[in-house]
Amino acid sequence: MDNDIILVIVVATALAFDFTNGFHDTANVVATSISTRALNPRVAVALAAILNFVGAFLSLEVAGTIANNIVDQGAVTTTIVFAGLVGAIVWNLVTWYFGLPSSSSHALIGGVVGAMLVAVGTSAIHGDGIVSKVLIPALVAPLLAFAAAGLAIVCAYRIVGKLAPGPVSRGFRLGQIFSGGLLALAHGTNDAQKTMGIITLALIASGHLGSDAGVPTWVVVSAATAIALGTYLGGWRIIKTMGSRIIKMDPAQGFAAQGSGAAVILAATHFGYPLSTTHTISGAVMGAGAAKRLSAVRWGVAGNILVAWVLTLPCSAAVGGLVYAITHLFGDGAAGPIVVAAAGIAFVLWMFLLRLRRGAAITTTATEGNA
Amino acid sequence: MSALLAAVFAAPAQAAAPLAAKIVDWGQLLEVVEAGLIAGVGISIAFSLLILGTVRLGEARQQSRHGSAFAHGVLALVALAVCVGAIAFGVSTMLAK
After folding, report:
1. pTM, whole model, 2 decimals?
2. Is B88 near chain A, with CB under 8 Å?
3. Measured between alpha carbons, how far is A123 from A138 in angstroms, rounded to an integer?
4. How would DSSP label each residue in A270-287?
5. Mind listing the pLDDT tens digit of every residue in chain B (97 residues)?
6. Terminus-to-terminus CA distance in chain B, angstroms?
7. What three-state secondary structure class fits A235?
8. For chain B, what are the domain ranges?
9. Residues 71-130, chain A: which have Cβ within 8 Å of B?
10. DSSP A71
11. Which of A22, A120, A182, A329 has the fewest Cβ atoms within 10 Å of its own Cβ atom?
12. Whole-angstrom distance, CA of residue A215 vs CA of residue A220
């Protein structure tokens, strides 16, 4: 009975994480389209939500990075998964509060690693997997996207530089609908799968599924729905940061950032090297700005984003570890997860209320300024 | 002294090099960088050429310059084919994951 209650809490928490993932990462997909006025904000967010939903169905292979390469799969329990998810949700909300784009995948990995460290110790952590699957891609993604987008915008300006600006801007705005669509699809296939993988892992750990079982249909549908809903409701604060606080973009820069970002993600995926959509598109936005004029990039904002990236793994790990320790204080039953989940819901509501009181202006600016 | 320093710093470096080679697949990383740069820059060049071809085609047709219109029409078509191919490749990559 206790196991079932914990499992229900874990599934609900995983779907809540999926929601914050969509909510938090909407900016990656739509920010440049909105800031260059390629799309109306509401249309852009709705399109991203639909494509994220579709993307979640495109590929049903479980994203096994966390289960297979980061921690010892045999040592994972539902309580560890729960603590890891809470760590990721808390970090996603904190970075959303400050309007900073950070990787939801890194937050999830950090949360699970932190909970695992407290529960089992260092023996259950695959250090080489963390370096090769998390840290190296985290370095490669923004640098590669920065270089690709920088070169892309230089080439684009050379090719269309002598044409009348009107048709050029219209052309690049039209192109952004497709480049943004590809990004949204890539995001849906990448990120919704992580939640599907986590829920499947919890079902296996609790004995409800065999270790070789596939992802149940209800898991696919619920994960796709949660990420699409989160995307539709949109994190306007991060959209504002990505769309206009790093650089003010023209349509050519917007297309170069989105087009090169999507191309870099998909080319890397083709070679079996998954890159974070957040890191890639942030690097591409900075590259597209810096290639035009170094001073066009607000390096202070870029520095804050970099700090958030560096802090993501240790901070979500700290929260994940702390949550596991607190949960464990109540024993192995369902009491711990119930208490932590109740506290978590209270924390989420408090963050939203605080932000609503202080941050409504950013939502209004993002919508009004571009509608 | 310098020999001692060299030995002290050489030992971790020698130990770290095989470890780094073991953890990081440098060949795959180089492939990713090459493919990412080519795809990332290529898609923007192709789309810019599509815009160039379309705009110049319109101008040439207005001024009845048939040769220029044909050349820019071909340019726009080839660039469009590259862009459509890139989107198809992207979707097929996602499906193959």
Report:
1. 0.78
2. no
3. 24
4. HTT----HHHHHHHHHHH
5. 444 444 444 444 444 445 555 666 778 888 888 988 999 999 999 999 999 999 999 999 999 899 999 999 999 999 999 999 988 888 887 777 6
6. 55
7. coil
8. 25-96
9. 128
10. B
11. A329
12. 7
